[in-house]
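Intended use. Records like the one below are meant for learning the mapping from a protein sequence to its folded structure. Do not use them to infer anything beyond what is encoded.
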Amino acid sequence: MDISSIINNTSSTPKSTNDDKKALFTAIDAANLNRVRAVLREICGESTEAFRLASEKIGGVNGGVDGDTTGTKRKAQNRYETCIQCEQEYDVLGNCEGKCVWHDGRTEPDFDNDFWADHDDDCHGIIDSEEYPEGYVWDCCQKRGDEVGCMVGRHRTGGEGMKRYRRC
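Structure written out for the chain above:
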């Protein structure tokens, strides 16, 4: 049985049950990332419908703004990127002004408030921003280390070829 017959439900086997789905989802969650990628590539290679769905959900983005094409071929870009400012994954097609919130600075221990008053390196270990962000302040805005960013704008990647994908 191939993937097309499964998707088109043309096989003689009954539709999957909730137990089947649960078992598959559990197997997906437990699978190695490389295995999941290989299986997804195989499924997309065997089924045009699966290829279409995958392209829609995670596929590459070609061309210009809102499908504008200039007659020149452009290399496909990833549909989802990780922002270098906020470090969050975002959809390049929905990258509007105001979607990214970040701090444009570094955190420093906040010794002016009482958070670190009882801290003893020998007893508590080193002061750690990952574990205790509320004991830090951002040098860009003086907000506590666990507060939302002071800068607002568009998401950015390291490659900055994003403007042609703007749809907002």
